[in-house]
């Protein structure tokens, strides 16, 4: 014990670091080196007692006996072996009591219902669905879509360039290719997802266009094959850049190599998605059957002149609700290596209680502006009926144990059971006579075959559990909350669940 006295205190320090809450990367590296020394001295191994509980034949016999001791398990087995086990738990009572009717609804919901198909472009569909409501009203349109493919093209181009710069920067920081950070970056170098500040980067840099001016393509609607080509090439280029840094290449040499690599990347993306025109001419009929023509005009000019006066992305702010104990409210956060445009806006999260997000979403809708938000969409969702409610499924009745709600929201984040994976738009809200918010209406991007012709309803209880992010106009946000954006952001690791919507 005396021999291990000093080492034991070091072990406790090592364990505190193991949670990875440290914001000081140099300190983390020192802890890692110290842990190797402790292991070499046998201190770590000596301090750990392993729990061994093998599934012996006797244990397996006990498990089997307990299963068949309850006849309800046999009935549940008969049901779930013949149908979807989750759908079998759906509550008929919730289906009967849930109505897609709301006290406040935006004046113009976009038509047609959009469909991202087999791609991860929900974040782009959600913002363009939000933007089109005021645009359609101003231009007297019955139906309209902005081109999701246009922003997807530019995000792929910018994202690949951003990845190559991340590879250079992490190499210069001394990050090993076998280390967690570089390994994480290499796992999916060009994913489809994204975050709010990445939207701002794209729109303020490249503008937007109507869908008729840059329509969908095969690789827009099913991106996995194009992505596989890009991933392989980007990993090849990552090795080349790291080799150059190992050989003391200058910054100018690295820039030249990245430009050469981006020539090939642009070619692959352009072949798969098409290349947008530098200028567009948009012709259309309005509701009154009048002919209209806009252009020739650049996509950025189209945004500045035709869209920005009614929806300015720079006037909106991103609020998140992350209840983990290590991430207090009233603080500004960012995620390491998360972004899409070199020298663009960094991803910033203003962390606030979920009640504030709910209140501001309702205020925005009452003022006729839909809200872009991020959530864990598949939890407690009856997709066919478009219902998000924590009571939609009675897992306790079927399996004898509850599912999804056994952990708190904070613990679900910590243990990887929940995170924001999908972006949509709130378009309506119900508020009772006492002023209490009861439910929201969602415009999704999965087509009319999901939900109530593409729309869903979400209760406030579900919102509190599974919504993590919302974007509202800064005019609705209290001054003290806006002041948080002036803070120096706390950097979360690249793999933090607050960044998953971008993956």
So what's the overall shape? globular
Q: Number of helical runs?
A: 19
Number of domains: 1
Radius of gyration: 26 Å
pLDDT averaged over residues: 93
Task: For the record, give the distance between the C-alpha atoms at the N and C termini, rounded to a whole number.
Answer: 47 Å
- Backbone structural class: alpha+beta
The CATH first-level class comes to Alpha Beta
- The CATH architecture would be Alpha-Beta Complex
CATH topology: Cathepsin B, Chain A
Number of strands: 14
The CATH superfamily is identified as Cysteine proteinases
Helix content: 40-55%
Share in β-strands: 5-15%
> Low-confidence segments, ≥5 residues, pLDDT <50?
1-24
Biggest β-sheet description: 12 strands, mixed
GO molecular function: cysteine-type aminopeptidase activity; cysteine-type endopeptidase activity
Subcellular location: Cytoplasm
Keywords: Cytoplasm, Hydrolase, Protease, Thiol protease
InterPro entries: Papain-like_cys_pep_sf, Peptidase_C1B
Describe this structure in words.
There is one protein chain. This protein has 503 residues and is of the alpha+beta class. It has one domain: Cathepsin B, Chain A (Alpha-Beta Complex), CATH 3.90.70. Helix content is 44%, strand content 14%. Strands 1, 4, 5, 6, 7, 8, 9, 10, 11, 12, 13 and 14 form a twelve-stranded mixed sheet that branches. α1 packs across α2 (25-40) and α12 (224-246) runs antiparallel to α13 (251-273). The radius of gyration is 26 Å and the shape is globular. The model is unreliable at 1-24 (pLDDT under 50).
